[in-house]
Specification:
6 helices, 54% helix, mainly alpha, globular, single chain, binds iron/sulfur cluster, 113 residues
Length: 113
């Protein structure tokens, strides 16, 4: 972080946009991604003990679990948003029990950290 741009760059962009911490004041959509995206954009996953395509199980990628949990928690708000609708439509492909397992695993992750 650059000290001289904290107020006008780091807070609105680094925190506000990347974490959707401003509730949509600056960014119209949340910039959320699963472990699959991290795998596609980097080589971080190559030697990781987690699997970026899995959202439940002991070797599930925590980013993927929390991604699907985020979509579930904010379903009502974003499912009709023109820039995010596709992400939320993918959520519809999961069964009720898969969604429940993801929520349970996400709760575990949050409690652990
Ligand atoms: S935690 Fe997930 S996103 Fe991060 S390196 Fe491991 S598999 Fe990839």
């Amino acid at each position: 972080m650059y000290v001289d741009v904290v107020e006008w760059v780091e807070l609105p962009h680094t925190l506000g946009m990347s974490q959707y911490a401003d509730g949509g004041m600056l960014a119209s959509k949340p910039y959320v991604a699963s472990g699959r995206y991290i795998q596609k954009m980097s080589n971080y996953c190559r030697h990781c003990r987690y699997h970026p395509g899995k959202s439940t199980s002991a070797d599930a990628c925590p980013f993927t679990t929390l991604y699907w949990d985020f979509l579930q928690r904010h379903n009502a708000r974003f499912r009709r948003h023109p820039r995010t609708a596709l992400q939320w439509r993918n959520l519809d492909r999961l069964s009720r029990s898969e969604k429940r397992d993801i929520r349970d695993q996400a709760d575990e992750i949050r409690q652990r950290h």
